[in-house]
Amino acid sequence: MADLHPLLRRQLRKVLGGTDVPDTMKAFVTQVNEAYLQADDERRMLERAFDLSSQELMDANEELAEASRAKDRFLAMLGHELRNPLAPIVMALEVAALRNSSSVDVRDLERPVRQVLRLVDDLLDIARVARGTLVLEKRAFEVSHSVRDAVEAVQPAAAQAGLVLRTDVPPSGLIVDGDEGRLTQVVSNLLVNAVRHTEPGGVILVRGERAGADVVLGVSDNGQGIDPELLPQIFDSFVRSRTPDVPHGAGLGLGLTIVRSIVELHGGTVTARSAGRGHGATFEVRLPALAPTEIEVRAAAGTRAPGAIARKILIVDDNRDVATLMGSALRIMGHEVALAFTAAEALGQLESFTPEVALLDVALPDMNGRELGARLRQHDAAIKLIAVTGYGQPSDSEASRRAGFAAHLVKPVDVSELAAVLDS
Predict the structure, then answer these.
(1) Which pTM was predicted?
(2) What would the 3-class secondary structure string for 362-389 be?
(3) What is the dihedral sign for C-alpha 144, 150, 156, 157?
């Protein structure tokens, strides 16, 4: 039995004891032994294949991880490169608005610029949604604040489209724990969607109410409506109306996907209803409500009026157009402003100008803006630092926070947002 498979040899010894294998069993034992040996060879082959597959899987995972990191770097650079050329245009429009300019050219320019910004934001946000990196900065606030900001942003487009935009949202009593800016984005995206699919003369209504344990927001229109076969997919990426005559452009088909993702991150739900073509549509957002305790009411009802305090502000940006226009806007708001276009110029300004606030571009040609912030703080530890940059990834904001910056603003900066940060 010396040439038998070890496992078969042990089994035969148990059965036969010390005796030899009978001649009548030898052929059968030979066949079984061959089967054992073949199975053993196949096991070794499988083990070798498994080892190779495991290594290939690890290599593939590393390649995917590197591809993801490369995509993140590309998106960060894409956002920076797309936002930077738009920043001086938007700032010029903001300055014109602060000067009460009534130029038709200015108003006509603002709408397409805002549209491009929306497309950039949607593309970057949908990438964050896909990677699960869309994060919220939560606090207690009144939902009416988000509705007001969204309506103000969309009102010009609605007016140009010949639409009536109405609201029925109580100014107080609808408090949620969430990200006010992101909820503004939700309402804005729903309003933009309604504007796109409503013919001139139509009406769009934003309503809000408390329903049990939820705050309910609804955006309704009497526009084209939604086909029944499209309704189940309406929140999927790149799903757009199949109607060729969308009144005001179909967009990229990302806005509603972003709405659903933001609402779900808040622990809420969003649904769509429509009786079909020509019967309008209603989108309903439900969010967990907060009880109006004293602390939450104070947090939600805090003042947001801009420009209450005049400050000494240093602006450092190598984009001269952005720096100059931002300086003009802040001077109109009553602030004292000094400009620098390099880190060296900014440090030189300290000999005659000690700012209370420094607005720093991160990507300066001669020094990283965060390093410059540390140098400014060495001169005066009381200086408040605000990053103003084209880089808007969550990792960029976190890097600014770790460097001691009070805020991280992404270009092009909205003047009202900047004013609110300065007042805070």
Answers:
(1) 0.57
(2) CECCCCEHHHHHHHHHHHCCCCEEEEEE
(3) negative
> 139-300, superfamily in CATH?
Histidine kinase-like ATPase, C-terminal domain (3.30.565.10)
Q: How many CA atoms lie within 13 A of 268 on its CB side?
A: 26
Whole-angstrom distance, CA of residue 167 vs CA of residue 180: 18
Q: Record the tokens describing residue 333, joined without a space.
A: 């708001």
**Omega before 412 within 30 of 0, i.e. cis:** yes
Distances (CA, A) of 65 to 70, 94, 130: 9, 41, 14
**Cβ contacts of 135 within 8 Å, gap of 6 or more:** 394
The Cα diameter of the chain in Å comes to: 112
Token pair 């984005």: residue = 185
Angle between helices 320-332 and 415-423 (to 10 degrees): 60
- Tokens, residue 161: 């489209």
In angstroms, rounded to a whole number, what is the distance separating the alpha carbons of residues 70 and 300? 40
According to DSSP, the residues that pair with 408 across neighbouring strands are 387
Contacts of 87 (CB under 8 A, 6+ apart): 319, 321, 322, 390, 411, 412, 413
Contact at 8 Å (CB) between 169 and 206?
yes
Q: Walk along the chain (424 residues) and give the pLDDT tens digit of each residue.
A: 556 656 656 666 665 555 565 555 556 666 666 776 777 778 788 877 777 667 677 777 777 777 766 766 666 666 666 777 777 777 777 777 667 655 545 555 666 666 666 667 776 776 667 667 677 888 888 999 999 989 988 888 899 889 999 999 999 889 999 988 889 989 999 999 999 889 999 999 999 999 999 999 999 999 989 888 888 888 886 665 655 555 445 555 678 888 999 999 999 999 999 988 888 999 999 999 987 654 445 455 544 444 457 889 999 999 888 888 888 888 888 899 999 999 999 999 898 898 999 999 988 989 989 999 999 999 998 999 999 988 777 788 888 999 999 999 888 787 778 888 888 7
Do 253 and 237 meet the contact criterion of CB atoms below 8 Å apart? yes
All structural domains of the chain with their residue ranges? 6-63, 139-300
HEC-encoded secondary structure of 120-154: HHHHHHHHHHHHCCCCCCCEEEEHHHHHHHHHHHH
**Could you give the CA distance from residue 301 to residue 295 in angstroms, rounded to a whole number?**
10
